[in-house]
Structures are given as C-alpha cells and as structure tokens.
Amino acid sequence: MLDMEMEGYGNEITTITLDDKPLANATIPATLTGRHKVRILLVGKAPRRPQ
Fold it and tell me: Residue 30 to residues 4, 33, 36, 50: CA-CA distances in angstroms?
C-alpha cells in the first residue's frame, strides 16, 4: 500500500521522498512491496498564463 501526501501548491516539485528519504528521479520502483509513504512538497508558484 502506498500512502501519498502533498503539501503546498504550484507547478513545480521542491522535494519528493519515499519513506522520508529522497526519491531519485521522482520514480517509484515497480518492485516496491508492503506499506510505504510518498511525500511531495510543491513550490508556491502558479503556472504562467499564456500571453
């Protein structure tokens, strides 16, 4: 089971962790089993509007 938590808002990821450890390339291994926690922290920037 994978618990996911997101904090902040915006269009860019500041940090992403798996079980409180940095997640390389923001990729969750396909071989992952058991219970784990993913945490995503977003930077507070709104997407740019087209001009």
Answer: 16, 9, 13, 37
Q: Is the dihedral of CA 11, 25, 28, 40 positive or negative?
A: negative
- pLDDT value at residue 36: 96
pTM (whole model) above 0.70: yes
Query: In angstroms, rounded to a whole number, what is the distance separating the alpha carbons of residues 11 and 42?
Result: 7
Judge whether 41 and 20 are in contact, CB under 8 Å: no
Rg (CA), the chain: 13
- Under the banding of pLDDT at 50, 70 and 90, the label for residue 48 is confident
Contact 11, 47 (CB under 8 A): yes
